[in-house]
Amino acid sequence: MTTNEAGPPTAPVARQPIRRTDGGVLGHEYLYRSPTGEVAGVDRWPSHRQDSASASVLRMLYGTRPPAGSGLVFVNVTRAFLVGRLPLPPADRRLVLEVVESVPADGASLAGLARLRAQGYRIALDDWTATRDQRAMLPHADFVKIDCRDLDAIGDAGLRRARAGGARLVAERVEDEDLRARCVALRFDLLQGYALGRPSLVTGAA
User: Fold this and answer.
1) How distant, in Å, are the alpha carbons of 50, 72, 76, 173 from that of 118?
2) Which residue among 72, 75, 165, 201 is least crowded, i.e. fewest CB within 10 A of its CB?
3) Sign for the pseudo-dihedral over CA of 113, 118, 123, 128
4) What is the pTM of this model?
5) Please, what sign has the CA dihedral across residues 67, 69, 70, 76?
6) pLDDT band for position 166 (50/70/90)?
7) Residue-range domain boundaries for the chain
């Protein structure tokens, strides 16, 4: 992926740490921001605009060279990236394709996940609630991300199902110390949220 590929101008990007339960940083999720640097609510956008947002983040991170550092790089992607309709930067064992919850587990998507993982990309399933589509994608997942607001609805059975394929569980929206302690007690592998670090704008590949 290069900066002269077709697409909208690169918008600001924020990054939020993803930490191990001992506090060490595994990597960061890189998040699309509006041109003024504000939260954009991308998850409520139609699919073609989500495509553009993901492409913008990837251009920001990989437009001229891979990001510096050694941490993992989590980026939300849509079906268009899984099926090859939109390009991805070369796999570097750091890039984690975070599949948004609206992606259907159709044949092309599942084949794309298998192909990308074989090429060296890591896969995360975002906002896991154990839907039929997510369960079909689970064998391809290295990480499963669960919003803390869904913990009660998912229950112990849902957490067991998420772990069934060997993926590492990431608790999202860990907003205070009580939630952090709860997620540690539930044996989450990784934690993300305000209690672990707020998103901060980045001005170049990070």
Assistant:
1) 25, 17, 19, 30
2) 201
3) positive
4) 0.89
5) negative
6) very high
7) 13-202
Using DSSP's 3-state secondary structure scheme, residue 160 falls into: helix
Domain 13-202 has CATH 3.40.50.1460: no
Q: Is 179 in contact with 199 (CB distance < 8 Å)?
A: no
118: number of Cβ within 10 Å: 10
Structure tokens at 174: 């860990």
What is the chain's length? 206
Q: Of 169, 191, 166, 165, which Cα lies nearest the Cα of 178?
A: 191
Q: What is the rounded CA–CA span in Å between residue 140 and residue 108?
A: 14
Q: Which residue has the tokens 């609805």?
A: 153
Q: How many C-beta atoms lie closer than 10 Å to residue 165's C-beta?
A: 14
Tokens coding 168: 């590492």
- DSSP structural state of residue 188: -
* 78-107 confidence digits (pLDDT tens): 999 999 999 999 999 899 999 999 999 999
Q: How far apart are CA 163 and CA 81, in angstroms?
A: 25
Return the pLDDT at 65: 79
User: How far is the C-alpha of 132 from the C-alpha of 135, rounded, in Å?
Assistant: 5
